[in-house]
Structures are given as structure tokens and as C-alpha cells.
Amino acid sequence: MRAPPLRVLTAALLVVLGIATSAGAQITVAEVSARRDSLARRMGDGVLVAFGGRTPVSDFGPFYQIPAFHYLTGFDEPDAALVMVVRNGRPSSTLFLTPVDPRKAFYYGRRPDSLTVVRTLGMGARSFAALDSSVNDLATTGLPFYQLADFVDADFAAEDSLTRGRAFMRALAARHPALVVRDAHPLVDALRARKSPAELALLRRAAEISDAGHRAAMTMAQPTKEYEIQAALEYAFLRLGGARPSYGSIVGGGAHGTQLHYMRDRGDVRPGDLVVMDAATEYEGYAADITRTLPVSGTFTAPQRALYQLVRDAQAAAERNSKPGMSAAAASDSAFDVRERGLAALGLIDSVGADLDLPWKTDCTRAPRSCRQAMFWMIHGISHGLGLAVHDPAQFYTGSRTFREGDAFTIEPGLYVSTDMLAALPGTPRNRAFIARVRPIVQRYQNSGVRIEDDYIITANGLERISHAPREIAEIEALMRTRPRRLVP
Prior knowledge:
Layout: H1 11-17, H2 29-43, E1 46-51, H3 67-73, E2 81-87, E3 90-97, H4 102-108, H5 114-121, E4 124-127, H6 131-138, E5 145-148, H7 164-175, E6 181-183, H8 185-193, H9 197-219, H10 226-239, E7 244-245, E8 250-253, E9 274-278, E10 281-283, E11 286-287, E12 291-295, H11 302-320, H12 328-346, H13 373-378, E13 408-411, E14 414-417, H14 419-422, H15 429-444, E15 448-451, E16 454-459, E17 462-465, H16 473-480
Parallel strand pairs: 1-5, 3-4, 5-6
Antiparallel strand pairs: 1-2, 2-3, 7-10, 8-9, 9-12, 10-11, 13-16, 14-15, 16-17
């Protein structure tokens, strides 16, 4: 039957189903169905088995669906599985549902039943208890199987090996030794990499809300603790409709700002220090990712200003090289080159092209820049995809590795300088000579972390920046001058 658009479903039903909708944008049931059709065409004949997330057992927190499962079903209830049988390129999809215990329903709410799923999502529905026998029968048909593993984030897929879905598929393969089981993630990732107009609209809203959080942090009374800034950021996210932070909010003052994924957020922020705020919201399932670096006092010192402007110039260079048809490598290389030249001018590296024996594994032949002295102060890449996950697939990850319409991504160059970092270098003769030369200069920039990150999409008109919190030095200092005085008890 023809699936209805989400906008015609009642508000109460949407709450029961947990499907994303917003005033300005929505993912329709028809769009989700088209995703399965597209996947079916790429699979050919075969059987897809995908598991959603489990009911949380670590605490009493809310349930959030696994992104890949959400992408193919729009179903955001726990303890479900999807089986899609494709024959002659035509898919037949069934959700296997776990009913909630009647008493627990008073605590956590009812779940949609089979009839509701059939009527509203256009898929078949059965009890989860029937999954094992159904899949066993399909395993005797000779069709190849495609597994969509139930890890939450691809960054941690290798460690996420004990989930229900993985255990289920291992047991199935053991019962059917001749069964062919393929990884469905490359196929699904290729679909997720190109964002639809509705997805782009939700990403714009996520970035807009995240901008408001960063402005709130810039205009709060001068803080003394990292968690005060975290509170200002996340309050704005929730107040404007964000569901939760896209990731653990990173608020690092002073030395903590040189730790890339510092999330403790309990330390002091002192006048004279920089504070790195890497924080954004998830809106209707779609994640923004924004970073700003502020002077706690409201004014950058001369050394801080020099580092900050280097990072901002690197971001601008990458923006100029992030247009449709352009190479993602060109964007990354241009941002590296700007920072390397600047670091040489500041005396933090010996020269452009100078190498170092870095404390992590590098392949200097295949990637010469990875062994440069400049890389030691940069550490990370400058871009990743955005979408249902904060590190989402992007089209420039594969194939020609060029930016294409429908890409959504970040540009986030950084520089991190501290004498503690020097202690991590292996004690080779080359490194000891480098440390002796730069240590006095490093002291001038001691404990300075600078990262500037914005969100972008590629449209038919070219590159569009969708995050707009102040990022120029003059803009930040002007806005911070409007802060109220801190009330001292």
C-alpha cells in the first residue's frame, strides 16, 4: 500500500512511533521506503538482517536508535529487527517487534503494535519471537544474506563485537555452514553519504540551535569552571528543541584544551587562558558539530591571537578548496600548508618540510606530511561527514574522493601547544635536538589549544556554511564585551 507522509499522522501517533518531525523539515515515510528500494537495487537478490538498539540496561536513561536502523526504518523503539527479502530487485520488509510488559508500559509508555506499524510505516510486522524461525527458513533458500551490524557508531565498530545482532548472525552461520553472509554497511553507507533535501534542512536546524549555544557561552558572565560553560551550551540546546548533545560536550580550559576529546568538564577556567568549546546538538536525529575557542578574559593575548589566526586562515583555505568536484585532499592539504608556514614563522617548527620522529605510527613514504614537525602540533585531520551520526558517511570518502552535491561535513583545523606534549616524543637524536630548540618558544604559547569547526553542505549552488557562531577575533571579542558582570557571593 502507499505509505502516508509523516505530516498526515496524528501528533499522538508520532510520539508513540518516535519518528522525527519538525516544523520546517521532515523525513517522510515515503523517503524512508525509497531508501530501502535503493538498497534493494544495490543488493540484488538477497536477505538483509538488521537489528535495532536494545532497551538501555546501564541506567534509566532514554533510548536512542542505532543510526543505520533508523535510516532504513524510521522506527525508534527498542528491541526490534528488520528483515528485508529482495527478489528480482523488489524488497519485502518486515519489522520484528518486542511488546513492552503491561506494567512497564505505565513507566516507559506503550510501543506500537503490528497493526500500527503496517498501517503507518508500510512494512510487515511480526513478533520478535518469530524472528529465529523466519530467518532459519530463509537461510535454506540459497539467497545470500547481508548483515547490518548493530553498532552505534562506526568509529567503534571493531570493538562492538558482542551485540545481539552479531551473536544472532554467528549462530545462524554456524547452523548453515554454506550460508553466504556479506557486510551491508558499504551499501547503506553509500546511501547515507548523500543527504536528501529534508536531511539537509534538519542539519541546518541542528547547526542553528548549536550556534545559539555558543553565543550563550560567549555572553555569559565570566566563568570560573568548565561546567558553567557546558551548562550554558547545553541549556540553549535543550531550550531550542535539541534532543541531546551530539556527543559529550568538550569544554577544556588551559591545558585541557590541548586534549582533543576532553569531556570531564570539571576544571577551572582562568583569565589569561583559552577555552576550547567543542559542543553541538542533535536535532530530530541529525547531529551538528561546532567548535569555538575563546579567551576566558574576553581578550586574546598576542601569542593566542597569532595561533588563533593561523587556524582561522587554515579553515578559510580549506573552504576555498571545498567546492563541488574539488578533491577533499586538496582542502586538507591547503589547511596543512597554511599552518605549517605559520608555525615556521612563529619558530614552533624548524622549517617548512622539516620532519620529526612522531610518537604514533606513520608511513612517511605514502603520506609525507604525516611525519612533518608541523603535524605534531596539529594531530588530527580537518573533516568528517555529518548526519545521523556525528561521524557520518560522506561521498568524498570513496570513489573519486571529491565533494558532491548532498555532502554534509565539517572543516575543523586545530593547533595544540604545550611542553607536556614534548615529553611524548621518542628520545631519538633528531627529536632531542628539536626539543632543545623549540622549548623556549613553546613556553610562550604554553597550554594553548585552538580549534575552529564549522558545518557545511554541498548544494547545487556550491559550498554552504550552515553554522554561524562568531569566529573572527574581532567578532568574538566584541560579543564578549557585552557579558554581564559576575556576581560574587
